[in-house]
Amino acid sequence: MQLPLTRDVRRILDFDIENRPSSYWYDGQTTAEVTAIAWAFTDKPKDISVRVLDPDDSLSMENMLYDFLNAYDEAYMVTGHYIRKHDLPILNGAIIENGFLPLSPKMTSDTKLDLIRYSDQPKTQEYLGRLMDTKASKVHMDQADWREANRLTPEGLAKTKKRVIGDVRQHIQLRAALIERGMLTKPKLWKP
Q1: 1 within domain boundaries
Q2: Full strand arrangement of the beta sheet holding 49-52
Q3: CATH classification of the domain holding 118
Q4: CA spacing 20 to 30 A to 47: which of 15, 84, 118, 168?
């Protein structure tokens, strides 16, 4: 006898990363190093997990990526702002560099790339959050804050942690508001 399905067991993972420039590559371009990852499943938006790079722990990066990968693998879809062009490719590079298998293809809902077309208005998460009147706001960091964060000082990492958590908190609310207003197109498959 087959039991009836009582709820959709597919889970959506909302996430964000922070990263810093690592080394020069070509024509002044730099490589990136992940400094923080925050994530929460949208069915439990208050349960935000966060991992921050610890410069005093040689396994910090591996542990951060491992913990995120467990959540990523549990999700049927991931969501964030500009994740298909920024977060996912940078994470995939870090994952490969640290000896893990590449990210698997995943359905994505990207609130920048899947936003309906319009012009002459910003498409940043901060602007859209204000436009959609989210309760959570973007945690602002100025150039001095970023310099501290990129140097991995304790104060800088504390600010990074607040920002990455704030981004996930705001994004969960933003995506819900955009869906309610019919402003997001269908999710798309991301492939490494």
Answers
A1: no
A2: 49-52, 30-41, 12-24, 77-80, 106-110, 188-190
A3: 3.30.420.10
A4: 84
- Tell me the DSSP string of 45-99: TT--EEEE--TT-TTHHHHHHHHHHHHHHH-SEEEESSIIIIIHHHHHHHHHHTT
51: which 2 tokens?
A: 């991992």
| C-alpha distance across the termini of the chain, in Å | 40
Q: How many domains does the chain have?
A: 1
Q: How far apart are CA 72 and CA 152, in angstroms?
A: 26
Is 152 a member of any domain?
yes
* Domain range enclosing 67: 12-190
In a domain, 6, yes or no: no
Q: Is the model's pLDDT at 3 over the cut of 80?
A: no
Where do we find the tokens 């410069």?
55
Q: Identify the DSSP state of 44.
A: S
What element of type H or E holds 166? helix 154-180
CA distance 138 to 163: 7
Please name the residue that has the structure tokens 């006898």. Answer: 1
Q: What is the pLDDT of residues 53-77, one digit of tens each?
A: 999 998 899 999 999 999 999 999 9
